[in-house]
Amino acid sequence: MKILIKASKKIIKKIKRFFIDENQFIKPNLRKDSKVGVYGHLDFIDEKGIYGWFVNLDNPNDNELTIKIDGIEVGKVKPSFQREDINNILDDTVISGFFIKWDNLDISGSILNQKEKIIIEIYYKDVKFEQSKAINLNSITKAFIVNDKTIVVGHYLCIENQTVFLEDEHGKRYFLDTNLVFKYTRNDISPLLLKYSISNLKTGFIYIINSKINRLTLKMINSEKEDLVLNSKEVEIFTDDIKSIVNSLFGLTENIHDFINFAKFIRENILEEYLKKRKQSLENLNVNVYEYGEQIENPEVSIIIPIYKRFDFVEHQILEFIKDNYIKEKAEIIYILDDPGIKEAFETEIGLLYKMFRFPIKWIDGQVNRGFSGANNLGAKHTKGEHILFLNSDCIPKKEGWLKEMVELLKNNEEIGIVGCRLLYPDGSIQHAGMEFKYLKEWDVYLNHHPYLGLDPILDPSKDITEYPAVTGACMLMRKTDFEAVGGWDGLYLIGDFEDSDLCLKVNTILNKKIIYTPLVELTHLERQSYRYFSDDTTKLRITLYNAKRHYDKWKEVLDLKGTEF
Fold it and tell me: For the chain, what is the domain count?
């Protein structure tokens, strides 16, 4: 009898070792040498449903799984398709992958109601997967201060029309039904609401409080008229750094269509005011001006070149400048350092270049990052020339005489307000040959469109000067008097987008002067070698949409008249 009991215990222990983990979890530690046992993994959840895999090596047909939310069963699922990764581990073909849609789950209102979050778990019989997934229903996810305002980001879900509000450390309440709240769709929540006829409810919120708060609590007034605490959050203080602010704000909404409306909301309530105050404060900031060599007393043209992050192109520019007699005799060169982080290295480089070439240079240390418009406006204040050429640091002239040709166009025709030229990629294809405005119906904005982008210059239909709605600010010539008459560059766009077309529209509408593109002058443009340092591609797209929306709101009548649809 003792021998039988001892043998039974060994068998049970062996079965347990292969059947479930000793900590009572189903784990994903499937190996090539696995012959018995059950294994599984809850991979992820999204707006469509729940994804994962499961294999039962002891009994492949016994594979029904139970979905639970906060311990309540809401549905069942079986593996229904092969997973290449699992097949590779087992060196066999097995049905292991599972997926279940949200609308195939029986999710009652009581499961979702009055909770900070819900926990989704997968069970095989009575043993659950090691992984679980949480969905925040009612919570403050982020709170930070920008421009003396507190920005609160969170979610709330009212199944039974409860009242949700924020409460600060002093007990003051902020209800989420004012024009200072932007509501947006959460892809992970919306499918859960299908059964309640509120699938279009925007459950994400961004609230602006016009004062500095230290701590906030999200509360709900429940059916018993009691305050239910859902979540609390300490408020972060952001530094006065436009990059940090933009990267934080522009990632708050998941849906790109929500972002179009959100762009206007944050512009009107946060960024426009912030940028105006910042621009005003920079007006009084002292800057340092450095001159190398004997400067031209009365130049015909001042060349302004902003520097941000990279300055290795400067040597290539100067090598071309010193070959050009017109530039040596008639132009002053002004570099604007718009990146305090590279000041020491840039100063060393400029000093070495002057010693090598003995070419007169002026450079201005702006002390802070002002952005494309701010750097150009700062440079314009220090010009002595009758004309100003705004030039990117990654634009390299192809031959001498190019600037004289552009200046002559302005000198000989008072009707011309701005002159742009042909810019080529390093491979010789067209980057810029004039700009048009194209309407993008999906987002209700006009984009700055380069009509012959990427084509061989032979295919450019312009053989002489041609009037366009706008030209790029990468190489743009205008009279200083015209520049001052329209108030210079608009400093309320973000990161070098749409400022050039904005300036062209001002010159065209206010001064009634033409914007001209000449294909007879060519430069090589390495395009946006500093812009790429700013942020990830998703944020860049949103910056473009933000600027496009502001551009359209400002110039709607003109754009509707001059623009065409894609």
Answer: 3
